[in-house]
Amino acid sequence: MSFWDGKKVLVTGGSGFLGSFVVEKLIGERSVSPENIIVPRSKNIDLRVWDNCVRAVKDADVVIHVAGRGGGIGYNRKFPASTFYDNIMMNTQLMEASRLEGVEKFVGIGTVCSYPKFTPVPFKESSIWDGYPEETNASYGLAKKMMLVQSQAYKQQYGFNSIHLLMVNLYGPRDSFDPENSHVIPALIVKFHRAKRHEEKYVTLWGTGKATREFLFVGDAAEGVIAATEKYSKTDPVNIGCGKDISIKELAKLVADLFSYTGEIRWDTTKPDGQPRRCLNVDRAKVQFGFEARTSLEDGLKSTIEWYRNEQERLR
Asked: Domains along the chain?
Protein backbone atom coordinates (compact mmCIF):
# COMPACT_ATOMS: atom_id res chain seq x y z
CA MET A 1 0.00 0.00 0.00
CA SER A 2 1.06 3.56 -0.68
CA PHE A 3 1.69 5.84 2.32
CA TRP A 4 -1.09 8.06 0.94
CA ASP A 5 -3.79 5.41 0.47
CA GLY A 6 -7.05 6.58 2.02
CA LYS A 7 -5.48 9.58 3.73
CA LYS A 8 -6.92 13.08 3.75
CA VAL A 9 -4.10 15.62 3.31
CA LEU A 10 -4.25 19.27 4.35
CA VAL A 11 -1.75 21.44 2.45
CA THR A 12 -1.72 24.97 3.84
CA GLY A 13 -0.47 27.40 1.23
CA GLY A 14 -1.50 24.79 -1.34
CA SER A 15 -2.51 27.42 -3.87
CA GLY A 16 0.76 29.32 -3.42
CA PHE A 17 4.28 28.86 -4.74
CA LEU A 18 5.73 25.73 -3.12
CA GLY A 19 2.35 24.43 -1.99
CA SER A 20 0.90 24.28 -5.51
CA PHE A 21 3.80 22.07 -6.64
CA VAL A 22 3.31 19.81 -3.62
CA VAL A 23 -0.37 19.41 -4.51
CA GLU A 24 0.41 18.71 -8.18
CA LYS A 25 2.93 16.03 -7.29
CA LEU A 26 0.56 14.39 -4.80
CA ILE A 27 -2.07 14.11 -7.52
CA GLY A 28 0.15 13.39 -10.52
CA GLU A 29 2.92 11.25 -9.02
CA ARG A 30 1.42 9.79 -5.84
CA SER A 31 -2.10 9.24 -7.22
CA VAL A 32 -3.79 11.05 -4.34
CA SER A 33 -7.37 11.87 -5.25
CA PRO A 34 -8.03 15.62 -5.46
CA GLU A 35 -11.03 14.97 -3.21
CA ASN A 36 -8.63 13.89 -0.44
CA ILE A 37 -6.52 17.06 -0.61
CA ILE A 38 -7.65 20.05 1.43
CA VAL A 39 -6.31 23.43 0.30
CA PRO A 40 -7.59 26.32 2.45
CA ARG A 41 -7.37 29.76 0.84
CA SER A 42 -5.97 32.55 3.02
CA LYS A 43 -8.74 34.92 1.91
CA ASN A 44 -11.30 32.48 3.31
CA ILE A 45 -9.47 30.95 6.29
CA ASP A 46 -7.07 33.15 8.28
CA LEU A 47 -4.82 30.67 10.08
CA ARG A 48 -3.83 33.28 12.66
CA VAL A 49 -7.29 32.65 14.17
CA TRP A 50 -7.66 29.59 16.40
CA ASP A 51 -11.14 28.55 15.27
CA ASN A 52 -10.00 28.61 11.64
CA CYS A 53 -7.09 26.27 12.45
CA VAL A 54 -9.52 23.87 14.13
CA ARG A 55 -11.78 24.00 11.06
CA ALA A 56 -8.86 23.54 8.64
CA VAL A 57 -7.48 20.35 10.22
CA LYS A 58 -10.86 18.62 10.73
CA ASP A 59 -10.71 15.03 9.43
CA ALA A 60 -7.13 15.49 8.13
CA ASP A 61 -4.72 12.57 8.48
CA VAL A 62 -1.62 14.46 7.27
CA VAL A 63 -0.91 18.19 7.56
CA ILE A 64 1.77 19.72 5.35
CA HIS A 65 2.16 23.27 6.63
CA VAL A 66 3.64 25.29 3.78
CA ALA A 67 1.84 28.59 4.41
CA GLY A 68 3.96 31.44 5.71
CA ARG A 69 4.48 35.18 5.52
CA GLY A 70 7.78 36.62 4.33
CA GLY A 71 9.80 37.96 1.44
CA GLY A 72 13.19 39.28 0.46
CA ILE A 73 15.50 41.48 2.52
CA GLY A 74 13.50 44.63 1.78
CA TYR A 75 10.20 43.09 2.85
CA ASN A 76 11.60 41.54 6.03
CA ARG A 77 13.23 44.82 7.06
CA LYS A 78 10.00 46.75 6.47
CA PHE A 79 7.63 44.32 8.21
CA PRO A 80 9.57 42.48 10.95
CA ALA A 81 6.76 42.61 13.53
CA SER A 82 3.93 41.37 11.32
CA THR A 83 6.26 38.75 9.81
CA PHE A 84 7.00 37.40 13.29
CA TYR A 85 3.42 37.56 14.55
CA ASP A 86 1.75 36.07 11.48
CA ASN A 87 4.13 33.12 11.26
CA ILE A 88 4.30 32.23 14.92
CA MET A 89 0.52 32.40 15.33
CA MET A 90 -0.16 30.24 12.28
CA ASN A 91 2.49 27.67 13.13
CA THR A 92 1.73 27.34 16.85
CA GLN A 93 -2.03 27.14 16.59
CA LEU A 94 -2.09 24.84 13.58
CA MET A 95 0.16 22.28 15.24
CA GLU A 96 -1.89 22.36 18.45
CA ALA A 97 -5.13 22.00 16.49
CA SER A 98 -3.58 19.09 14.58
CA ARG A 99 -2.63 17.35 17.82
CA LEU A 100 -6.10 17.76 19.26
CA GLU A 101 -7.66 16.48 16.02
CA GLY A 102 -5.49 13.35 16.12
CA VAL A 103 -3.58 14.09 12.91
CA GLU A 104 -1.21 11.22 12.12
CA LYS A 105 1.65 13.39 10.82
CA PHE A 106 2.48 17.10 10.78
CA VAL A 107 5.12 18.42 8.37
CA GLY A 108 6.44 21.87 9.24
CA ILE A 109 8.26 23.83 6.53
CA GLY A 110 11.03 25.81 8.19
CA THR A 111 13.72 27.99 6.64
CA VAL A 112 17.44 28.42 6.17
CA CYS A 113 16.90 31.87 7.73
CA SER A 114 16.72 30.14 11.13
CA TYR A 115 20.46 29.39 11.05
CA PRO A 116 22.92 31.65 12.91
CA LYS A 117 24.43 34.49 10.90
CA PHE A 118 27.94 33.05 10.92
CA THR A 119 27.18 29.34 10.65
CA PRO A 120 30.17 27.37 9.27
CA VAL A 121 29.61 26.44 5.63
CA PRO A 122 28.07 24.08 4.65
CA PHE A 123 25.34 24.48 7.30
CA LYS A 124 24.82 21.30 9.30
CA GLU A 125 21.58 20.76 11.21
CA SER A 126 23.61 20.42 14.41
CA SER A 127 24.56 24.13 14.12
CA ILE A 128 20.98 25.43 14.27
CA TRP A 129 21.33 26.65 17.89
CA ASP A 130 24.86 28.04 17.71
CA GLY A 131 23.96 31.74 17.41
CA TYR A 132 21.49 34.45 16.42
CA PRO A 133 20.15 34.65 12.84
CA GLU A 134 21.16 37.38 10.38
CA GLU A 135 19.43 40.57 11.54
CA THR A 136 17.49 41.43 8.37
CA ASN A 137 15.49 38.19 8.54
CA ALA A 138 15.73 37.30 12.22
CA SER A 139 12.02 37.79 12.98
CA TYR A 140 11.08 35.40 10.17
CA GLY A 141 13.78 32.87 10.97
CA LEU A 142 13.04 32.79 14.70
CA ALA A 143 9.27 32.49 14.24
CA LYS A 144 9.87 29.46 12.02
CA LYS A 145 12.45 28.09 14.45
CA MET A 146 9.88 28.04 17.25
CA MET A 147 7.94 25.52 15.16
CA LEU A 148 10.95 23.20 15.54
CA VAL A 149 10.89 23.73 19.33
CA GLN A 150 7.17 23.01 19.41
CA SER A 151 7.59 19.91 17.24
CA GLN A 152 10.23 18.43 19.53
CA ALA A 153 8.28 19.34 22.68
CA TYR A 154 5.10 17.76 21.33
CA LYS A 155 6.97 14.59 20.46
CA GLN A 156 8.42 14.42 23.98
CA GLN A 157 5.19 15.10 25.88
CA TYR A 158 2.46 13.78 23.59
CA GLY A 159 4.25 11.42 21.20
CA PHE A 160 2.96 13.62 18.38
CA ASN A 161 4.46 12.74 14.99
CA SER A 162 5.80 15.95 13.48
CA ILE A 163 8.90 16.76 11.44
CA HIS A 164 10.69 20.00 10.60
CA LEU A 165 12.28 20.72 7.22
CA LEU A 166 14.81 23.55 6.84
CA MET A 167 14.11 24.84 3.35
CA VAL A 168 16.78 26.74 1.41
CA ASN A 169 16.00 29.66 -0.94
CA LEU A 170 13.49 28.49 -3.57
CA TYR A 171 12.85 29.72 -7.09
CA GLY A 172 10.83 28.72 -10.12
CA PRO A 173 7.56 29.30 -11.98
CA ARG A 174 4.71 30.86 -9.96
CA ASP A 175 7.09 32.64 -7.58
CA SER A 176 6.20 36.17 -6.48
CA PHE A 177 7.60 38.75 -8.88
CA ASP A 178 6.16 41.67 -6.90
CA PRO A 179 9.02 44.16 -6.26
CA GLU A 180 7.68 44.71 -2.72
CA ASN A 181 8.18 41.15 -1.49
CA SER A 182 10.11 39.16 -4.11
CA HIS A 183 13.26 37.19 -3.36
CA VAL A 184 16.53 37.62 -5.21
CA ILE A 185 15.95 35.51 -8.34
CA PRO A 186 12.52 36.97 -9.21
CA ALA A 187 13.90 40.46 -8.52
CA LEU A 188 16.81 39.86 -10.91
CA ILE A 189 14.53 38.45 -13.59
CA VAL A 190 12.24 41.48 -13.41
CA LYS A 191 15.14 43.93 -13.59
CA PHE A 192 16.97 42.29 -16.48
CA HIS A 193 13.76 41.66 -18.41
CA ARG A 194 12.90 45.37 -18.16
CA ALA A 195 16.46 46.48 -18.93
CA LYS A 196 16.63 44.29 -22.03
CA ARG A 197 13.21 45.37 -23.25
CA HIS A 198 13.86 49.10 -22.77
CA GLU A 199 17.53 48.93 -23.80
CA GLU A 200 18.69 50.37 -20.48
CA LYS A 201 22.43 50.95 -20.26
CA TYR A 202 22.81 49.67 -16.70
CA VAL A 203 21.02 47.77 -13.94
CA THR A 204 21.48 48.64 -10.26
CA LEU A 205 21.42 45.80 -7.73
CA TRP A 206 21.49 45.71 -3.92
CA GLY A 207 24.67 45.14 -1.91
CA THR A 208 28.16 44.20 -3.02
CA GLY A 209 27.31 40.97 -4.84
CA LYS A 210 29.79 39.08 -2.65
CA ALA A 211 27.25 37.22 -0.52
CA THR A 212 26.47 33.67 -1.60
CA ARG A 213 23.16 31.84 -1.68
CA GLU A 214 22.02 28.31 -2.39
CA PHE A 215 18.95 27.95 -4.61
CA LEU A 216 16.62 24.98 -5.00
CA PHE A 217 14.16 24.61 -7.86
CA VAL A 218 10.61 24.53 -6.53
CA GLY A 219 9.75 21.22 -8.23
CA ASP A 220 12.68 19.55 -6.50
CA ALA A 221 11.68 21.14 -3.19
CA ALA A 222 8.17 19.73 -3.50
CA GLU A 223 9.60 16.25 -4.07
CA GLY A 224 11.74 16.67 -0.94
CA VAL A 225 8.70 17.59 1.13
CA ILE A 226 6.73 14.60 -0.09
CA ALA A 227 9.62 12.14 0.35
CA ALA A 228 10.19 13.37 3.92
CA THR A 229 6.48 13.06 4.67
CA GLU A 230 6.52 9.45 3.50
CA LYS A 231 9.78 8.25 5.02
CA TYR A 232 11.00 10.50 7.86
CA SER A 233 9.62 10.65 11.39
CA LYS A 234 12.51 11.80 13.61
CA THR A 235 12.56 14.98 15.69
CA ASP A 236 15.87 16.23 14.28
CA PRO A 237 15.44 18.97 11.64
CA VAL A 238 16.45 18.18 8.05
CA ASN A 239 18.02 20.47 5.44
CA ILE A 240 16.27 20.51 2.06
CA GLY A 241 18.58 21.95 -0.62
CA CYS A 242 21.06 21.13 -3.35
CA GLY A 243 24.29 21.66 -1.41
CA LYS A 244 25.81 24.24 -3.80
CA ASP A 245 25.98 28.02 -3.44
CA ILE A 246 26.69 30.84 -5.88
CA SER A 247 27.64 34.49 -5.29
CA ILE A 248 24.96 37.06 -6.05
CA LYS A 249 27.40 38.67 -8.51
CA GLU A 250 27.79 35.37 -10.42
CA LEU A 251 24.03 34.81 -10.29
CA ALA A 252 23.34 38.29 -11.70
CA LYS A 253 25.76 37.63 -14.56
CA LEU A 254 24.06 34.31 -15.30
CA VAL A 255 20.58 35.88 -15.40
CA ALA A 256 21.88 38.76 -17.55
CA ASP A 257 23.39 36.28 -20.01
CA LEU A 258 20.12 34.32 -20.23
CA PHE A 259 18.43 37.57 -21.26
CA SER A 260 21.34 38.42 -23.61
CA TYR A 261 21.70 41.67 -21.69
CA THR A 262 25.09 43.33 -22.29
CA GLY A 263 24.70 46.54 -20.27
CA GLU A 264 26.55 47.43 -17.05
CA ILE A 265 25.70 45.92 -13.66
CA ARG A 266 26.10 48.42 -10.84
CA TRP A 267 26.07 47.60 -7.13
CA ASP A 268 24.41 49.84 -4.52
CA THR A 269 26.67 49.15 -1.55
CA THR A 270 24.48 51.27 0.75
CA LYS A 271 22.03 48.36 0.69
CA PRO A 272 22.63 45.24 2.84
CA ASP A 273 24.01 41.94 1.58
CA GLY A 274 22.17 39.94 4.23
CA GLN A 275 23.81 36.76 5.54
CA PRO A 276 27.38 36.44 4.18
CA ARG A 277 27.02 32.84 2.98
CA ARG A 278 24.30 30.23 2.74
CA CYS A 279 25.00 26.68 1.72
CA LEU A 280 23.53 23.55 3.26
CA ASN A 281 24.93 20.17 4.09
CA VAL A 282 22.28 17.90 2.57
CA ASP A 283 23.61 14.51 3.66
CA ARG A 284 20.84 13.84 6.18
CA ALA A 285 18.05 14.16 3.59
CA LYS A 286 19.89 11.82 1.22
CA VAL A 287 20.55 9.19 3.87
CA GLN A 288 17.19 9.35 5.67
CA PHE A 289 14.78 9.54 2.73
CA GLY A 290 16.83 9.49 -0.47
CA PHE A 291 16.29 13.09 -1.50
CA GLU A 292 18.67 14.73 -3.98
CA ALA A 293 18.06 17.84 -6.08
CA ARG A 294 17.85 17.06 -9.81
CA THR A 295 17.47 20.43 -11.55
CA SER A 296 20.59 22.46 -12.37
CA LEU A 297 20.51 26.19 -11.61
CA GLU A 298 20.81 27.12 -15.28
CA ASP A 299 18.00 24.80 -16.35
CA GLY A 300 15.81 26.01 -13.51
CA LEU A 301 16.46 29.65 -14.41
CA LYS A 302 15.59 28.99 -18.05
CA SER A 303 12.30 27.41 -17.01
CA THR A 304 11.52 30.29 -14.65
CA ILE A 305 12.34 32.97 -17.22
CA GLU A 306 10.23 31.23 -19.86
CA TRP A 307 7.27 31.11 -17.45
CA TYR A 308 7.73 34.78 -16.51
CA ARG A 309 7.88 35.87 -20.16
CA ASN A 310 4.72 33.90 -20.95
CA GLU A 311 2.95 35.50 -17.98
CA GLN A 312 3.98 38.97 -19.14
CA GLU A 313 2.61 38.25 -22.60
CA ARG A 314 -0.62 36.89 -21.16
CA LEU A 315 -1.13 40.00 -19.03
CA ARG A 316 -0.44 42.49 -21.82
From this structure: 9-171+215-243+279-294 (3.40.50.720)
